[in-house]
UniProtKB/TrEMBL annotation:
One cellular component (GO) term of this entry: SCF ubiquitin ligase complex
GO biological process, one term: SCF-dependent proteasomal ubiquitin-dependent protein catabolic process
The protein, known as: F-box domain-containing protein
Superkingdom of the organism of origin: Eukaryota
SMART domains membership: FBOX (SM00256)
Any Pfam family matching the protein: F-box-like
All copies of domain F-box, residue ranges: 32-78
Length: 360
């Protein structure tokens, strides 16, 4: 019986030698549309890894992809970080994008390059109409502080009553924005990230009023004062917080954390104190004795604040690899002009001008 092989749409009989394939590798025939043979579930799973722009482009390939790509599950999590400003002509949101924003569950805008602050506010105005919004990420957005009133109005107009995660890292925000977030999400917000933001002490007083907050990150919030941070950690931190990140805050003291862990009703499970230079290994062991199940992330090297501890630190620094030797002009160092020679006559004159200090 004659066998046929399909190569480039040309039938070949068994008398023709078929192309040789390496053993153990699947036979891929040119010209065959193998992608269309995949199940709809597999194609939908592939589409879930695409960005907004790429997924929107796939909708115009064919009718089948259009129907698969319009699955509402694919548009629950919107990442508009790479959105182009040409997609928002005259600050008007296209009908399709508007429909996605008003039904999304998660919105991410991270370090946008092609869109400005006014474009972002236009998108947020649409997203505020979504009753399903539960996660919002706005990070590395320049000049957002100039639009504080608009951002405050966004949080006040959010229709979702289930906003659980807010990330405002690496942006400049004011206290009024956090207070607006407090009014709408006091009982629902579980995670708040304010890393590398210039929040001040009034923000800590607003954070203290969240009732369901479980994850709080204040990494490198250098604008916080020492008294404000101490009062927040030892007295005002919400009892519901389980994970606390206070990295790179050199003012943190062991006494503040001791008061925090000994406060009745606290649920702290993990503390990240990397970069808190005043904490020693002995301090961390004391905290571990108070709460043995506590997980601590730290960069402490000193055993204690003593001469022995500093000697161990110097031994550690001495164990590091030495820097590479200098070469070229750097090894020679800067050239110094030699001091001019002084004659015998000049030296006698200088000696006579020096006053003699003695007892008469």
């Amino acid at each position: 019986m004659a066998k046929e092989f399909l190569v480039l749409g040309r039938p070949l009989t068994s008398t023709t030698t078929p192309p040789t394939m390496p053993a153990g590798e699947p036979a891929i025939v040119s010209g065959a549309d193998s992608f269309s043979k995949l199940p709809t579930e597999i194609i939908s799973n592939i589409f879930s890894y695409l960005s907004y722009n790429d997924l929107s482009s796939c909708l115009s390939i064919c009718r089948e992809w259009y129907y698969i790509g319009n699955d509402p599950l694919l548009w629950n999590e919107l990442d508009l970080s790479n959105l182009r400003n040409t997609s928002l002509p005259h600050f008007l949101v296209p009908r399709t994008l508007h429909r996605r924003l008003t039904t999304c569950r998660s919105l991410t805008i991270d370090a946008p390059i092609s869109i400005g602050v006014h474009h972002i506010l236009t998108l947020l105005k649409c997203a505020s109409q979504s009753p399903n919004l539960c996660s919002l990420t706005l990070t590395s957005i320049p000049n957002i502080r100039s639009q504080t009133k608009a951002l405050e109005q966004f949080f006040l107009s959010v229709k979702s009553r289930n906003l659980q995660h807010v990330d405002l890292s690496k942006i400049s925000i004011s206290t009024s924005v956090i207070q607006a977030l407090l009014q709408t999400s006091r009982k629902t917000l579980k995670s708040l990230d304010l890393e590398f933001s210039n929040v001040e002490d009034p923000v800590l007083r607003a954070i203290a009023q969240f009732e369901a907050l479980e994850h709080l990150s204040l990494l490198d919030c250098f604008s916080l004062s020492k008294p404000g941070l101490r009062s927040f950690l030892s007295k005002r931190l919400p009892a519901s917080v389980r994970v606390l990140k206070i990295c790179w805050l050199p003012d943190v003291r062991i006494g503040w954390l001791y008061e925090l862990l000994t406060k009745p009703g606290n649920r702290i499970e993990k503390i990240d104190v990397r970069g808190c230079d005043r904490l020693t290994l002995g301090d961390l062991r004391c905290l571990q004795k108070i709460k043995p199940e506590l997980e601590m992330v730290h960069t402490a090297l000193l055993e204690e604040e003593s001469v022995w501890g500093y000697r161990k630190y110097l031994e550690y620094m001495g164990s590091l690899a030495p820097p590479p030797p200098l070469v070229g002009a750097a090894a020679q160092g800067p050239k110094r002009e030699p001091f001019p020679a002084i004659s015998t006559k000049q030296s006698s004159i200088l000696a006579s001008t020096v006053p003699e200090y003695g007892v008469p």
